[in-house]
Amino acid sequence: DDTLYLLETQPTRLGIFQEMIKKTSMYSHPLIHHLMDPEAHKEIRENSDDKQVVTEIMARCFTPTLITTTSWEGFHFVGHEIRITEAMDCYGAVVWPSALVLCYFLETNAKQYNMIDKNVIEIGAGTGLVSIVASLLGAHVTATDLPELLGNLQYNISRNTKMKSKHLPQVKELSWGVALDKNFPRSSNNFDYILAADVVYAHPFLEELLVTFDHLCKETTIIIWVMKFRLEKENKFVDRFKELFDLEEISSFPSLDIKLYKAMKKNRRSTISSQLLL
Ligand SMILES: C[S@@+](CC[C@H](N)C(=O)[O-])C[C@H]1O[C@@H](n2cnc3c(N)ncnc32)[C@H](O)[C@@H]1O
């Protein structure tokens, strides 16, 4: 039995306990900041535009009532309790707020963006939460990321979709811009949706990311992309993105600096050449 503590329910003890776990590196990640930091709640309260929906999105996340040796975080989507294990030594191996925004969008817009039997690929899937939600909504999902993320990604996906999803999700390596023709030949790419949450930040592969979006995208493919704005670099990426794709802002969450976009290939009769990297 790996149980260390049983969380008690009296408010004062709970407060002390929250302070304690907030201080441990294991729990100091972006969602815990929003769940436990009174300032973050204040920030949400003070923004009247997105206050209600952001609170609703963040409420989908919960921390375990039993503290165990393996850290996991819980989420409620599509009528399921989803348990995500995070590998804290890796940047992508925590759940980022953009992922929650995308999951919430998929769940609450399931009629308009119907996932049932659709071919869906997620890039930069991290812990796999978005892919799990798409799979629980009935999609054929391929969750992708860098090789070092795949073990944890596969674990989370199997644990949360086995005997629950209509189609068994796949986990595949996809390093942006690398061996795309070999691993994802254009002729066999047939994705209805490309999902991406928080894939644009100060990393050196932004051009490769753009090439990857282009490579995976057919004329009919819809990209649903949630973007966290941190630096000027991100605005520039949006401008570059708009050269290749018709971009539509679907929702904005100012208190999180997050926007949700829908995009489709521009000039949908001509394929953008893979000379983008030249
Ligand atoms: C900020 S995390 C977001 C993870 C997840 N989508 C979420 O929102 O919780 C960025 C993700 O992009 C992945 N990533 C970064 N550079 C990459 C690259 N060159 N090729 C493929 N994936 C990459 C990381 O491994 C990580 O999973």
TrEMBL record:
Single GO MF annotation: methyltransferase activity
Task: Check the record and name the Gene3D superfamilies matching this protein.
Answer: Vaccinia Virus protein VP39
Q: Name a single GO biological process.
A: methylation
**Which of UniProt's keywords are assigned here?**
Methyltransferase, S-adenosyl-L-methionine, Transferase
Q: Which InterPro entries match?
A: Methyltransf_16 (IPR019410), SAM-dependent_MTases_sf (IPR029063)
Q: What is this protein called?
A: Methyltransferase like 21E, pseudo
Q: Which organism is it from?
A: Prolemur simus
- Could you tell me the gene encoding this protein? METTL21EP
